Amino acid sequence: xxxxxxxxxxxxxxxxxxxxxxxxxxxxxxxxxxxxxxxxxxxxxxxxxxxxxxxxxxxxxxxxxxxxxxxxxxxxxxxxxxxxxxxxxxxxxxxxxx
Length: 98
Hints:
Elements: H1 20-26, E1 32-33, E2 42-43, H2 45-55, H3 58-61, H4 68-77, H5 84-97
Antiparallel strand pairs: 1-2
Helix pairs in contact: 2-5
């Protein structure tokens, strides 16, 4: 007996219940603009700290002959290694955690 196929593309498009621009106006310090990433990438400070710490881990430091998805992941972390904003936020995060 065959299973019935689920139809795709019939779902309603996602509409956020939150007005993003209004939220950003009330929380101007919630996101920071990353100068090292392409586009106008906005990150939360905790995400910036995580990217900086991950980029400086020894297992992600070397870029070699790996599967493509690992290569892309490592290449996206390269600008975060020497980022001054990420280093400052990581120091602040470490002080808060201690």
